[in-house]
């Protein structure tokens, strides 16, 4: 089989990048939910798949997201490889 041209590789790049980002996001989210489950083993986290709880306003949800950003930063920094010396 002939090797692909640069143009063919470039045409495939958006789909490959999308798949990479999707897979990476899935792994990070699974890690975060695993952390929650390690602290609250009896929590039913399957409800998260249904989206925001009924009765939670956009303002409340935005507040929760803002409150969790420092925690997210810590989780992400713990997942990133340490810089090489």
Question: What does this protein structure show overall?
Answer:
The chain has helices spanning 6-39, 58-79. With 85 residues, the chain is mostly helical. The model has no long low-confidence stretch (mean pLDDT 91).
Topology, element by element:
Blueprint lengths: L5 H34 L18 H22 L6
What tags apply to this protein structure?
85 residues, mainly alpha
- Quote the beta fraction: under 5%
**Which structural category fits the helices and strands?**
mainly alpha
Question: How much is the radius of gyration in Å?
Answer: 19 Å
Shape type: extended
Oligomer: single chain
Number of strands: 0
Described by strand count, sense and barrel closure, the largest sheet is:
none
Residues in helices, as a percent range = 55-70%
Distance between the termini: 43 Å
Order of helices and strands: HH
Could you report the average pLDDT, rounded to the nearest whole number? Answer: 91
Number of helices: 2
Residue stretches low in confidence (pLDDT < 50, at least 5 long) are: none
